[in-house]
Amino acid sequence: MVHHRLDNILIIYPRSQTTLVQFGLHNDTFYVPELEIPTIIYKSTNDKGESIYYPTEGPNRLPICPIENGMIINLEAFQEFLKYIYISLLKQKHDENADSFEYSFTNIPLLLLNNHKWSQFQMESITNFVFEKLKLNGLMLLPISLGASYSMVSLQNCCIIDIGLNHTDIVPIVDYTTINHLSNTLNYGGSYINTILQKLLPELNDQQIEDLKKSPIFEVLTEDEKNDSAFDFNNPITTSTKNKDDDDADFDVASIINSGKDTREILAEREKKNQKKSLPNSQLEFNTFKDNNGNQIKIGKQRFQGCDELIQKISTRVGHTINQLEDLSKQRAIWENIVIVGNTSLITGFKEALLNQLVIDHLVVEPADEKRQREKENFEKILASQNESNTSTSSTITNKKNNTKAYGAPFLPSLEYVHGPSVIKLAKYPEYFPEWKKHGYGDIVFLGGQIVAKQIFTHSKDTFYTTKHKYERHGPSAIWNVEF
Amino acid sequence: MEIPKPSKSHTKCVVIQNGSHSTIAGFSNVSQPQCVIPSSYICKKNKITNDQEYIFETFKILDECEENLQNNLNDSIEKNVYTLYDNNGLPYNWEGIAKQWEYIYKEQLKCDMTEYPLLALMPVIGKDKKELEKQIKEEYYKLAFEKFRIPILYLIPSPLAIAFSLGKKSALVVDIGAKTCQVTPILDGTIIKDAVMKSKFAGDFLDYQIMKKLNLIETSTDANNKIDSLKIWLQSNTTILDFKRQFVQVTDRKLQEYQRYYEDMNTNMMLGGTNDTNSGLNQEKYFLYRDPVTKNRKTIALKLKECYALGELLFDPLPGLNGTNELDNNNNNNSNHNNTKKDIEGLGILMAKSIKKASVVNTSTMGISGNDKDGVHLSNSNSNNNNSSVASATIVKNNISTLLDNVIITGCTSLLQGVEQRIINEISIAFPQYKITTYANNMLNDRRFQSWNGGVNMCNLPSWNLGEWITRDEYFASKETE
C-alpha cells in the first residue's frame, strides 16, 4: 500500500499549443498551475540514424509539435516531451535541495489529462513509457472532459464544450461517464474568430488581431446590449464590407497607426473623454486597445463581431450530439448543465452568447406567432361567449364557465411539449477556489485534475489508478482495469 | 511508430456490429463502444476531377446534409447517401462495408487491422436462403482475410450473442430493428433456422408512416433525386427520431379493444353523454416540429389515439400499407385482412408462428423417438397437439415453455413506449397456459448496444472453444484444399 504525499503529485495537461504542469499540490487551496510551457520539442538525427530530442532550439534541430487539435500525432515526440518535463522538474528540485530525493520526492504519481481522441494504443504506449522509462510508481489518465466536470463539483450529467485554437471538442457525460461514441470534434476553434476578424479588419496584421481578441474591449454583446449600443446589428448590410468602407472613411485605423504620435494623442484624449463619461464598452462608438508593440489601435463595431459564426457552428453540433442520446431524461439533465471551457470562452460575453444561441436553436417553446394566434383566437372566443351570455337569458353551466374565464385574466399558459429541453443553462462555475476565481475559468480542466489527483492519490485504496504493481502484473493494458 | 509495442497477447479483440441502422464498433476490453455510426454513408463525387470522398461519421454526415440543404449547391459536386444493408436487413454493399471498416480502423479505433482478432456480428438468415447465407459468409471472409489480413475472425449471429451474453442457452430473441423485425428462437445454443421469422414492418416502416402523418413526403418528382436522399436521411435522423422517441406509443392490447374500453368507460363516467374532448384517447399531445432545412418551427398537435395508431402499425401494419392511417376507417375490415394477406404479418403473428415452428422442428431434428420412457411419463397432462406422439408433444411443450420463459426484447425500435407489455400480452393470447418472462434492458442506450455487448462478452469468455474462430491460415488452407 503506497501513500502519496501531496507535494509529490505531478499533474500534466498537454494541449496543442501549451502544456500546463504542476508539481506538488497544496494543502489548503488549489493554485493555478505554475508552468505553462509550449508543447514543442526539437529533434535531430545522429550519424546512426537515431532520433535525439532536445527541449530547446538548435542547429539541425527540427521543431515538432506532438499534439495537433488534441490528437497525438507523434507519439515518440510526445513521450520525449513528457520526459523532458519530468527531468527538468526533478533537476529543479534537486538544485533547490540536493538531498530532497532522499526523503521528500521518493514516490511521484502522475495524473495525465488525456483527450478523447487519443487511441488505446497511444494510451497503452504512454503507460508503458511512464512505468518503464520514467520509472514512476503511479499513473492516472483522466479524460479532459471528466476534468472539466469534476472541477464543477462532479456533475453527473453534462455536456463539455472545450474550445481550443483550431478545434472544439464536444463531449457528453452521462452518469459520471464520458460517452465515447458521442465525443466529437468540430474543426473550428478560437482561430476561426481571427479569420473572421481579419476579413473585417484587413488593415490589421495577425498579431494585432490576436491582441484585439484578447483585449478587454473585444466582446460578444447580448441582444439588449446590441440594442443599447450605437450600432445597428440587425441590419445585415452594415456588416458587409461595403458599408465598412464608409466606417473607415470616418476613421481609418490603418492611417492612424501609420500617422504616428499626434494621432495617438488624439486617441488618448478621446479615450479619456470616453472614460470620463464612463460608458460601458458596449455603448461606445469606438474603443482602443494596445497591441503587442504598445501601439494604441482604435476599433469600431468590429470589436463586437467575429464570434457569431463559431457560436452558430458549436450550437448546431451540440444539438446534434445531445440528440443522439437515447434516454430523454438524460438529455434533459444534460441541457441543464452545459460546461464551456477553453480560453476562447474567456471573451467577455462569449459564454452568454453561446448559451443564448443554444436556447434559440434547441429550446422547445411555443413559437411566438403561434402563441399570438392562439391568444387571439381565445380572446375572440371569450368575446363571442360574452356576447352570447349577455343576449341569452338562460345561462347554462357551460356559459357560466366561460363567463368566469372571460372575467379572469386573458392570459393563456404556454403549450406544454412532451419532448425536448424546456430549460437550457450553464453549469455553475465553482466560486470557492479563490486563486482560480482570480485567474478565470478558461483552464478549469486543470482544476478538475487537481481535485481528482488529490482524492485518488491520497486515498487509502489504490483502486482508482494504475500502480506499478498492477502494471507489472497486467502490462500496459492494466489501465483498462482501472475504473474511475 | 517505433516505440515498444504493448503486449500482443490476444486478450483484446475488435468487435464490429453492422446493424441495418447503425454500425457499432469498439474494443472488447472496454465496456463502451468506441464509435456508433450510421450504416449508410455519403459519397461526394467531384464531377470534374472524378475524385470521390466518403463520409461515415454521424456528425459529418449531418453537417453535409445541412450544408447541402441550406446553401446553393455546388454543381460540380454530386452527393449521395448510400446504404450498406438491403431492405431485408442483409448486407449487400460490400464495397461500402470495406470502406466503412477501413474508416473504423483508421479513424476511430486507430489501430492496425492485422493486429487484433475481429468478432463480427452478422444477421440471421433463414433456412430457405442457405445459398445466400453461404455467400454472405464468404464475403465476410474475403473482406477480413484477403482484403484486410485480419488474423482471426469469428462471425456470430447477433441473436446468439445476445442470448449467450445474458447467460442463456435457449431464448426467443425478438429484435425490432430499423429495416426488419425478426424473431429468432434459440434452443440449446442452436438457432432454429426454420423458425426464424422476419418482417419488414420495423423502424424504417414507421419512419415512412410518420413522414406521411406529418405530411413530409414530397410527391413532386424532382429531377434532382440526389438531393432528396440527403434530405430524407437528415429528416429521419433528426425530426423523425425525436418524434418517434416521444410520440409513437404502443397500447398494451389491440388498439381497437383499447379504444372500445375507453369509450365504454367514458360513457359510464359521463352521464350526460357529452364527449370530453380532452381526456382519454382524445387527449392532445404537442410536438414542436423543427424543419431541418428551413429551421421553421411549427406546433403539431396529435391526439393520443393517433400516437397509438402509429405504434399499432408494428403489430398490425395493414392500415399503413393501405395509406389510411386513420383509426376510424379500418375499424371493420382490419381483422379480415390479416388472414387474407399472408405476407403482411404484425409482430404478434410473427412471434406465435416462430414459437410454434421452433417447438415442432426441434422434436424431429433432435431425433427423440416417441418411445422415450421419460417423455411418456412426463406427458400426463393434456396435450394440444393431436398429430404428434405423446412424447414429442411433451418436448413441444417443454420447448415452448423454455422459449417463453426467455423472451429477449432488443433492437432500436423496441425502445418505443409500451412495446414490452404488448409483446407479453400478444404471446399470452397465443399461448395462454405458459408463463412468460421477458428480458428487456431498461438502460436505453444499453439496449441499443446489446448485440455489440454480446459480442464483447463472447470475446471475454475464458476460452474461445464456444465459437468458431477462424484464423487467416486456416482460411487460406481451406481455400487451397477446395
UniProtKB/TrEMBL annotation, chain A:
<comment type="similarity">
    <text>Belongs to the actin family.</text>
</comment>
<dbReference type="GO" id="GO:0006368">
    <property type="term" value="P:transcription elongation by RNA polymerase II"/>
</dbReference>
<dbReference type="InterPro" id="IPR004000">
    <property type="entry name" value="Actin"/>
</dbReference>
<dbReference type="Pfam" id="PF00022">
    <property type="entry name" value="Actin"/>
</dbReference>
<dbReference type="InterPro" id="IPR043129">
    <property type="entry name" value="ATPase_NBD"/>
</dbReference>
<protein>
    <recommendedName>
        <fullName>Actin-like protein ARP9</fullName>
    </recommendedName>
</protein>
<dbReference type="GO" id="GO:0045944">
    <property type="term" value="P:positive regulation of transcription by RNA polymerase II"/>
</dbReference>
<dbReference type="GO" id="GO:0005198">
    <property type="term" value="F:structural molecule activity"/>
</dbReference>
<dbReference type="GO" id="GO:0016514">
    <property type="term" value="C:SWI/SNF complex"/>
</dbReference>
<dbReference type="GO" id="GO:0006337">
    <property type="term" value="P:nucleosome disassembly"/>
</dbReference>
<dbReference type="GO" id="GO:0016586">
    <property type="term" value="C:RSC-type complex"/>
</dbReference>
Automatic annotation (TrEMBL), chain B:
<dbReference type="GO" id="GO:0006368">
    <property type="term" value="P:transcription elongation by RNA polymerase II"/>
</dbReference>
<dbReference type="GO" id="GO:0016586">
    <property type="term" value="C:RSC-type complex"/>
</dbReference>
<dbReference type="GO" id="GO:0006337">
    <property type="term" value="P:nucleosome disassembly"/>
</dbReference>
<dbReference type="InterPro" id="IPR004000">
    <property type="entry name" value="Actin"/>
</dbReference>
<dbReference type="InterPro" id="IPR043129">
    <property type="entry name" value="ATPase_NBD"/>
</dbReference>
<dbReference type="GO" id="GO:0005198">
    <property type="term" value="F:structural molecule activity"/>
</dbReference>
<dbReference type="GO" id="GO:0045944">
    <property type="term" value="P:positive regulation of transcription by RNA polymerase II"/>
</dbReference>
<dbReference type="Pfam" id="PF00022">
    <property type="entry name" value="Actin"/>
</dbReference>
<protein>
    <submittedName>
        <fullName>Uncharacterized protein</fullName>
    </submittedName>
</protein>
<comment type="similarity">
    <text>Belongs to the actin family.</text>
</comment>
<dbReference type="GO" id="GO:0016514">
    <property type="term" value="C:SWI/SNF complex"/>
</dbReference>
